UniProtKB/TrEMBL annotation:
<keyword id="KW-0812">Transmembrane</keyword>
<feature type="transmembrane region" description="Helical">
    <location>
        <begin position="48"/>
        <end position="71"/>
    </location>
</feature>
<protein>
    <recommendedName>
        <fullName>Amino acid transporter transmembrane domain-containing protein</fullName>
    </recommendedName>
</protein>
<keyword id="KW-1133">Transmembrane helix</keyword>
<keyword id="KW-1003">Cell membrane</keyword>
<feature type="transmembrane region" description="Helical">
    <location>
        <begin position="166"/>
        <end position="187"/>
    </location>
</feature>
<keyword id="KW-0997">Cell inner membrane</keyword>
<feature type="transmembrane region" description="Helical">
    <location>
        <begin position="21"/>
        <end position="42"/>
    </location>
</feature>
<keyword id="KW-0813">Transport</keyword>
<dbReference type="GO" id="GO:0003333">
    <property type="term" value="P:amino acid transmembrane transport"/>
</dbReference>
<dbReference type="Pfam" id="PF03222">
    <property type="entry name" value="Trp_Tyr_perm"/>
</dbReference>
<feature type="transmembrane region" description="Helical">
    <location>
        <begin position="108"/>
        <end position="130"/>
    </location>
</feature>
<feature type="transmembrane region" description="Helical">
    <location>
        <begin position="142"/>
        <end position="159"/>
    </location>
</feature>
<keyword id="KW-0472">Membrane</keyword>
<feature type="transmembrane region" description="Helical">
    <location>
        <begin position="207"/>
        <end position="225"/>
    </location>
</feature>
<feature type="transmembrane region" description="Helical">
    <location>
        <begin position="237"/>
        <end position="255"/>
    </location>
</feature>
<dbReference type="InterPro" id="IPR018227">
    <property type="entry name" value="Amino_acid_transport_2"/>
</dbReference>
């Protein structure tokens, strides 16, 4: 895995700063944890806990493989960009990766798919936040959606770097709140008079939603990769930080 990438990385063993490693770890968690985890119990009900753990373990192995493969691709792409032209080169992005490795028709489909994916994802978060806020505040969501989009989009565009430590802190709070909710739900479930059932033939039922609940981190890895020192040590630590984020999300989903 480290062959071509480490050759393209800077010489030496400059480590990844702890602050950056923590940032990559929590951003990975924030990217993965979303609506998928909330939908898992609906599908889990059809097969039971045991079959779900088996299918979800395959999802963990697949996502770990995707993370390691993406790190390798980013290193190869950076090495190729550095030797293709003179002058400073930008870090690899999803668009540049498509331009380097895909034929023109497939490249167009990939870029279009990426745009649709990110736009639909952002729309989902906007609607979810607006609905949740309006239910707590007792107001119409149509009044909240537009100001929410304008204010927070402007804040992210203008104060991107200043907000990054806040995103890390809020992600940590989000994980703590999720763990608390897992405990509360577990306590309530222990008081409910329901006999759990297991159906191995239905073990494929939660597979799709499981991949959604554990996927998505590869979309932000090019952005995170841009922040790290290009040494073999830092790249290994970056890969470990993202992989650890995937593993923590897997454990949180299992507990949930």
């Amino acid at each position: 895995m480290a062959g071509a990438g480490d050759g393209g990385a800077g010489a030496g063993g400059q480590p990844l700063p702890f602050k950056e490693a923590l940032f990559c770890f929590f951003v990975s968690i924030a990217t993965i944890l979303g609506t998928g985890i909330l939908a898992l119990p609906v599908k889990l009900y059809e097969c039971g806990f045991g079959p779900f753990v088996v299918t979800f373990l395959f999802a963990l192995l697949a996502q770990t493989g995707v993370v390691w493969l993406m790190v390798e691709i980013l290193q190869r792409a950076e090495h190729r960009m550095a030797h293709s032209a003179s002058g400073p080169q930008a870090s690899p992005s999803l668009h540049s990766l498509a331009a380097m490795y895909l034929a023109r028709p497939i490249r167009f489909v990939f870029n279009l798919s990426a745009m649709v994916h990110f736009v639909s994802l952002l729309i989902g978060y906007v609607l979810a936040w607006s609905k949740a806020f309006c239910q707590l505040a007792g107001c119409e969501d149509r009044v909240v959606i537009t100001p929410f989009v304008i204010v927070f989009t402007a804040a992210i565009v203008i104060f991107n770097k200043q907000l990054q430590p806040l995103v890390t802190t809020l992600t940590f709070i989000k994980c703590v709140m999720l763990i608390v909710m897992v405990g509360v739900v577990g306590y309530i479930g222990s008081k409910a008079d329901i006999d759990p059932s297991t159906s191995w033939p239905a073990m494929g039922s939660p597979f799709l939603i499981g991949t959604i609940a554990l996927g998505g981190v590869v979309n932000v890895m090019p952005v995170l990769y841009e922040r790290i020192p290009k040494s073999s040590t830092a790249i290994r630590q970056f890969r470990s930080s993202v992989t650890a984020g995937v593993a923590v999300c897997w454990a949180l989903n299992i507990l949930w």
